[in-house]
Design a protein that fits this description.
This protein is mainly beta. The chain is 8% helix and 39% strand.
């Protein structure tokens, strides 16, 4: 054991020389003990047992086997007649196999060193050392092959500075046997320290205004600290200011700088902590004091949402603003509904807007309000204001289920443009799409209670409720904004596509330009810009069902950005539409929001756009002709619209009647529709062809 004695004497001499404040390595012993214990029998199993030197506060927990001296003839003579910790047979240097665990008596400070003495080098294998039991790269300190030193083998392991605080040490073996006799764990020492616990190192102050206290705290080995006022940033000591004081509290180990400045200037100081032998590096600080300036008023929203939309007759959620208690004496507001006002509470320094929304002539009606904070008399500067809006919705507004993802829905949903548009016009409930199978049935059942279901792009396509929604197409009005649902479980066959940078607009197919979803938008040659410059409008390909109304920017047939499925009857209120969004709907343009609003109105209406051709032709082209008003290039008309058919017989012929031709969903082919000429017909989507019939005139 002479080696250990020599090392300990060297360590002791370093301490006497005052190295304690230098933060150099290997100065504090955390654990120093033989890893040996007596009374073992050969190959006896060792349970988890606490052994070791109790007087230093550390413990050893050993897993593996203990062997008697007779089984290890290569032991050093220093350890005759004792048995020692034994680790072996790991497939790698891993704590998942046999290991020895050591709990040091003190925490680490910026790494340190471990020295392990062994009876053999384990046939050239390695030891692994970890600072937690989980054997992974982030916890591994390193692997080491011991080298012989005198009669023992020694592994010296430097612990990186990243290992700080209370850490257990685990020593594991790689496919061999190691007998460990002693472990020495050391760490760096932390000398006297001084730091700011409140306030700024380079503080600001004003004449005649109390300085925000600056508190410095000494720690580690420090027993005291001294503040010295300086004549410059790194200058010489000077007289302490009369209006600012530095008060030391030895019990709290703090120095507090406070006071009320009487003149403008910059004060400089330094603080040094000491333990009686060593000093910390000086910590320099300053206080820049300027002439007093009347503070600007401040007003901050602290409760409620400053933009709200609710039905007439409903109370808004109280909107509460906090006013800066110094510099602000109150507030005023303009733009609220008639009879409303804000209430200022001088005790809590709050300004509250509340009330019940009035009945309006038209809906929605929006009140844009402005609050102005009242300032002190000497304040020079611009008025400090904040704004908000209160929208009154129709008391009979339709209900909308807005399905979103709980992890991405913001605390202030006004940033989600689609939600904001819906909430200004309808009674919106935000529903979180459940991802637990047991919760989806009740979730789906609840959707029947709404006039419209809107599924947002942010919900992941792997979400269980999102996938189940595919089987509910045609069961209630349904607006889908996520093309990547196509091809998922329960959904229509197809595949969602992300698009590329610059895909900000859609191409409306000319034959569907009259669809109500495109009403009121600014189309440029059938192009509608749906998203801003950073948006990318997505699309679906290979859709097995539905009619594509608009493709993505490429214009490629089958790239559906906007698509519809309906049952083709005027009373249909269970229509489905895809209106693809960019990944972030805050990129929506005004036209993009208009398309979405149109889609919502259309889906909740009984109107249905007719996609079947109505071919108007005579049974014989030589016998007469047919004119339809208004004209349609492709023969497609909106359901519910009225058209006029006028037949003109050829010379020698007369008009007889109008009959059903082609496929009919309500009557037989050949049935007479009318004998009127002209004939007004209301498009109902059930007839695909109308024939004008002529016969020779009687001379």
């Amino acid at each position: 054991m002479r080696r250990f004695t020599k090392f300990s004497l060297l360590l002791f001499s370093l301490l006497l020389m005052g190295v304690v404040g230098s933060k150099s390595a290997n100065e504090v012993i955390l654990f120093d003990s033989p890893m040996c214990f007596s009374g073992a029998t050969a190959a006896a199993a060792l349970p988890l047992t606490t052994v070791g030197n109790a007087d230093i506060g550390g413990t050893i927990l050993s897993l593996g086997s203990k062997y008697a001296d007779s089984s290890t003839p290569d032991k050093a003579v220093d350890y005759t007649n004792i048995s020692c910790s034994y680790i072996r047979q790991g497939s790698a240097a891993s704590t998942s196999n046999q290991y020895i665990k050591i709990t040091p008596n003190k925490p680490f400070y910026n790494g340190g060193r471990i020295t392990i003495w062994l009876s053999s080098n384990g046939s050239g294998k390695t030891l692994g050392v970890w600072h937690t039991q989980a054997a992974n790269a982030s916890n591994l300190i390193g692997t080491y092959t011991p080298t012989k030193s005198n009669t023992l083998y020694e592994a010296v392991i430097d612990i990186p500075t990243s290992v700080t605080g209370a850490k257990d040490i685990f020593i594991g073996a790689q496919s061999t046997s190691f007998f460990i006799y002693k472990v020495l764990i050391e760490t760096n020492i932390m000398g006297p320290s001084i730091s700011y616990s409140s306030g700024d190192q380079n503080a600001m102050g004003m004449v005649s205004k109390a300085l925000s206290p600056i508190v410095l705290t000494w720690g580690s080995s420090a027993t005291d600290a001294t503040l010295t006022w300086l004549d410059a940033a790194d200058g010489n000591p000077t007289t302490a200011p009369s209006d600012i004081e530095a008060v030391k509290n030895s019990n709290e180990k703090t120095i507090t700088i406070s006071g009320t400045p009487t003149s403008d200037r910059t004060l400089y100081y330094s603080v040094v902590a000491t333990d009686g032998t060593n000093n910390s590096d000086p910590l320099f600080g300053s206080i820049a004091i300027t002439s007093y300036v009347t503070p600007a008023p401040k007003i901050t929203l602290t409760s409620g949402q400053n933009n709200q939309a609710k039905k007439a007759g409903m109370p808004i959620t109280d909107i509460v603003y906090t006013l800066e208690d110094e510099g602000t004496t109150g507030a005023s507001v303009v733009g609220l509904p008639t009879g409303w006002d804000g209430v200022y509470n001088p005790t809590s320094h709050t300004y509250t807007i509340s009330g019940v929304l009035p009945t309006e002539v038209t809906y929605p009606t929006t009140y844009n309000y402005t609050i102005t904070a009242s300032s002190l008399t000497d304040y020079v500067g611009s008025s400090v204001t904040t704004t908000g809006s209160i929208t009154v919705k129709d008391p009979n507004a339709k209900t909308v289920a807005f399905i979103y993802d709980a992890t991405t829905f913001p605390s202030d949903p006004d940033g989600v443009k689609l939600y904001t548009m819906l909430n200004q016009n309808y009674d919106v409930s935000v529903l979180v799409a459940p991802n637990v199978a047991a919760d989806t049935a009740a979730f789906m059942s609840d959707l029947y209670n709404y006039d419209l279901v809107v599924f947002h792009e942010k919900v992941g396509s792997a979400n269980l409720a999102a996938q189940r929604l595919g089987s509910y197409i045609g069961k209630f009005p349904f607006l889908n904004t996520k093309p990547h649902m196509y091809g998922k479980t329960n959904w229509i066959a197809g595949s969602g596509q992300n698009g590329v940078s610059g895909d900000t607009y859609v191409n409306v197919l000319p034959e569907y330009a009259s669809h109500p979803v495109f009403a009121g938008v600014q189309a440029d040659e059938n192009k509608i810009t749906m998203a801003g410059s950073t948006g990318i409008i997505r699309y679906a390909t290979g859709i097995a069902k539905g009619t594509t109304l608009a493709t993505n920017k490429s214009g490629t047939e089958g790239n559906a950005s906007i698509s519809e499925i309906n049952n083709g009857t005027i009373s249909d209120s269970k229509k489905y539409m895809l209106v693809s969004l960019s990944a972030a709907d805050e990129n929506l343009t005004t036209d993009g929001l208009t398309v979405l609003k149109n889609a919502c109105e259309y889906l909740m209406s009984t109107d249905v756009y007719a996609y079947s051709n109505i071919t108007l032709a005579s049974t014989s082209s030589e016998n007469g002709s047919v004119k339809i008003t208004p004209e349609s290039a492709d023969g497609k008309y909106l359901l519910g619209s009225t058209i006029t058919l006028e037949a003109t017989p050829a010379e020698g012929y007369k008009f007889n009647n109008w009959t059903i031709g082609g496929l009919s969903l309500r009557a037989d082919v050949g049935d007479v529709l009318s004998t009127d000429n002209p004939f007004q017909y209301t498009v109902d989507g059930t007839i695909t062809e109308i024939n004008a019939n002529f016969s020779p005139s009687v001379v």
